[in-house]
Structure formats: structure tokens, C-alpha cells
Amino acid sequence: MDKPQLIVMLTFNDMTVDNAEEIFESCKHLPVTFWGFKEKPIGRERMKNLFSRMKQCGKKTVLEVVEYDREGALAGLDAAVDCGVDMLMGTKFYPEVAAGCQRAGIKYLPFIGNIEGRPSVLKGDIEEMTEEAEKVMEQGAFSVDLLAYRYPGDVERLIDNINKVCGGKLCVAGSIDSFRRLDVIKKLKPEWFTIGSAFFNNKFGDDLPTQIETVLKYIG
User: Fold this and answer.
1) d(CA 91, CA 74)
2) What domains can be seen in the chain, in order of their start residue?
3) How far is CA 53 from each of CA 13, 56, 194, 214, rounded to the nearest angstrom?
4) CB–CB of 173/146 below 8 Å?
5) Whole-prediction pTM value?
6) Of 4, 121, 161, 213, most Cβ neighbours within 10 A?
7) What pLDDT, in 10s, does the model give residues 113-156?
């Protein structure tokens, strides 16, 4: 891609917002291809209905699962397959999840590094995370869900290293809440980046449609 693609996440503090459907309807006309939300606290039927509506509007769908154990990862896979999403992000890497996503034609982008909490926090050594990214892709992941701005170290070096390993297919997720951070995204060119809470905190303007347009213009 010649520019990173925005994934609008209808989430706040790593939880799907109560009025996600209403917000999507108010923004569906915008030229954003990728839309998503988290697996909690939304129920399965509501999840299916919202993803279905997004697809009716020509959007690509993204489910991000903030779970770290095998049970949570498999539950996320089940939801992703049931809803027919285009991308499953999150979970730590599990080969069974990668295999299930490949069978269903879903892009699987797991977390790497030491993740804990909700909202998630990333810890770890950059070289070790780079090796982990290589390993999970060799084992069947499409790419990586990198919580770069939840990391207390050298964020630019982290993004650059992992993006190179992922062949430019990286998704940088979480806490992109300033134009300065968008400058880094523009510079390093991961394929995707997510914004959720920052929109609901009005970090890029006064209302959500205007903020999305502002970010799109700034990136493009």
C-alpha cells in the first residue's frame, strides 16, 4: 500500500461502546474500508448483526480479541468464523487459531510480546519480539497486532523492526492519539493502524465523522 489504512475501532478502553451500531450508521458514508470492535461486552447475536451491516455497506470487518490464554483465543476464533470477519486480531498466537483462520479465509494477526491487562500493556525486549513475530508468521499468522504505543521503550524502533519482518503487513494498534504519533505511522508505513478510544476522547476534533475525515486527510 502507498499509505497506511485506518481501521476504525468502535471501542473505548478496549471495550466495545454501547452505541456502536448508531455510530457506524453515522459514519458509514466515509471512505474508510476497515471497521471493527472488541469481543466484549457485546453478545454474539449483536456482534453478528453489526458485522453483517458493515458488510452490507461494503466494509471489511475486524474483530480484536483481548484474551491471552488458549481458551480465550479459541473462543475468539469461534466468534470470528461465526461472524465471517475478514480479520481476527489479538490473542496470543496459537497454532489451532492460525489453522482455523486459514480454513475460513480470515487474516490472523496475533499479539506479540508480554501483554497484560485490559486496556492492554505491552512489555518485552525488541529483539525478542522481532524473533517472535518471525516465528508466528512462519507458523501460520498473516501478520502481527502490535501494541506499539502501549510499550514504554523505543516505539519507533519497535514498529520499524516488526514491520520489516512482516513485509509491511503490520497493524499498529492502541493509543494512537496525536498527530505526532500519526507522523510516525506515515513515516514507517505499516499496512494498518487502529484508532478507537482517541476518537471518543475527541483527540482529533469535535465529532467522530469529522475526526475520521481529519485523520484520513492527514495520512493521505
Assistant:
1) 9
2) 5-219 (3.20.20.70)
3) 24, 5, 20, 24
4) yes
5) 0.97
6) 4
7) 999 888 888 999 999 999 999 999 999 999 999 999 999 999 99
